[in-house]
Amino acid sequence: MKTQFVSIIWKRLNERYEAWISTYDSGKLLIIDIDDLNFADNQEDMGKIINKINAEINGLF
Fold it and tell me: What pTM value is reported for the model?
């Protein structure tokens, strides 16, 4: 029961985020596809995300 409740919360949060981000126009937007990344458990994956953020901030690539 608790797992189902948490799943519903994440689903609703994601739906609201998607609705918000689809209309965001207050600045640059960096979208990182994390479907194939395990940044919580894999330092290399976390490094990939950090590198993308740094590249965007510093205007690299």
Answer: 0.64
